[in-house]
Amino acid sequence: WSGPDPMAFGPRGEVTLRWVGPEGEELERLQLDPEAFCAWSSPGNATGGLVYGHYGRPQDLAELRARGVSAQGHLMLLRLGRGSPAQKVAAAAGEGAVGVLLYPDPLDMAGPGGGPGLGGDTA
User: Fold this and answer.
1) In the chain, at which residue ranges do the beta strands (DSSP E only) sit?
2) Which residues form the domain of 83?
3) Exposure winner among 20, 42, 55, 56, fewest CB in 10 A?
4) What is the CATH number of the domain that holds 81?
5) What gap in Å lies between CA 83 and CA 32, rounded to an integer?
């Protein structure tokens, strides 16, 4: 990469998170802010169970394997911090996850006034 070149992003459409039951029935639909999407995500849908992987670090994923928990074919829920989002997604993909949901834990973020919390503009 040698300099800032304009990047073309596709149109932003509806962004939703759907919780579905064992028979595929929709249990809940959450409308998400289309302005808060990751422009480098693959387009499409990902369906699977949910596996919590703490920060998604190698030691976190090793702990899951030691407990007999597999991310294969599932979505991983990972906390932001203690590594880059790109590292977390790559590690989850290496474990066979079909998608990653990253979330900011208020304990890991500096909120208004410098204490733990999330600011009003936190996507």
Assistant:
1) 16-20, 26-31, 50-52, 75-79, 99-103
2) 47-105
3) 42
4) 3.50.30.30
5) 24
